[in-house]
Amino acid sequence: MATIGHKPTNFDQLCSRLSLVGCRKMSRKPSDALLLIATTFIGVVLGFLIGVSVPLLSVSKVQNSQTLDQCLFDFLHLVHQKLGIVNYLSTSLLPVVNQHSRDVSRQNHALNDISKIWVPSNPRGAERLPPGIVASESDLYLRRLWGVPSEDLTTKPRYLATFTVGYDQRQNIDAAVKKFSDNFTILLFHYDGKTSEWDQFEWSKRAIHVSARKQTKWWFAKRFLHPDIVAAYDYIFIWDEDLGVEHFNAEKYVELVKKHGLEISQPGLEPNNGLTWQMTKRRGDTEVHKETEEKPGWCKDPRSPPCAGFVEIMAPVFSRDAWRCVWHLIQNDLVHGWGLDFALQRCVQPAHEKIGVVDAQWIVHKRVPSLGNQGEPSSSGDAPWQGVRLRCKREWKMFQNRLETAEKALLENMSRST
Known about the structure:
Low-confidence stretches: 1-6, 17-30, 54-66
Number of helices: 13
Helix content: 25-40%
Number of strands: 9
Number of domains: 2
CATH class of the largest domain: Alpha Beta
CATH topology of the largest domain: Spore Coat Polysaccharide Biosynthesis Protein SpsA, Chain A
CATH architecture of the largest domain: Alpha-Beta Complex
Shape: elongated
Strand content: 5-15%
Order of helices and strands: HHHHHHEHEEHEEHEEEHHHEH
Distance between the termini: 92 Å
Largest sheet: 9 strands, mixed
Structural class: alpha/beta
């Protein structure tokens, strides 16, 4: 009931509906007080209505709406219907809820729009993938076809030993592999196409076999030993098949490499006769040597190859970081690797400290020309190995020319930029 001369307000009408004592009297107080009282009152009423009205909401509707925003929207409509607070809801609360719902919908759409994913820091080709799913590195660990992936590996070898082999050298390779512990993954590159024949050796059943007829170890290394594939291994051995290992132990070798800080190394060589380089000759009075004296005129600097920073390509051992550089240095079409030994110094610095020969663990180079015999006879009647040797020399010259050209181009670009 309104007082004479006073036009009933929505607030007065609400007071009358709810029969609140003293409500109409308070409505006539100044506007600031009225606003405070009205806000408090509406908060109490809404709290009461939540408790009373929530059970009335359709359960199925709540389940289908999926969002708290929709539930709140439905509730406000219910309040609107029951109390008739039309002006307040339609002009204030409902528009706010509607706008918030639209904002959330737009955000959800943006999050689900995978066409907008582009991460430049991802590896090349993977920019459209979220970084959390990118697997940029791998390994050569053998896994099961059943069970739980996390339980596949009982051990994870820390080192990789590779040999490029023909079946005729199986006894020598058998002896060599037995010098490497279970801490090594064994990988055989077969240049004669024979792989299953190696199963006569028990270790061969656990090894990895890659076969391509009449290919060299550097051809295999460039294609199957990408740094991201062998990233799990601290050291990578890339060896020939004709090495005697009677005085060699792989674990002790790695210990010495770590002790002396060698990033690129090889075992010392015997016998002394027939060796091309003094640097790779085994010394009997030291664990490791990193420098030597060569024939006059062979070394431009006593700290440059072949007097220092030098190992041969028959039995090199690379650290993970050094191999990442060396792999890029190997030319895709130059399969013999001649000249590579003189360029290894570019991958570690200071090279005269980080490249060396391990004398305490030494090997014998038996000089078996088995891969050379995989060549083809020439029309002039030359033996197969002669054609292979000629190709080696040509590749060495080509590699030197490419390296010099690349250096010259880089220096010219640097001078122009400065």
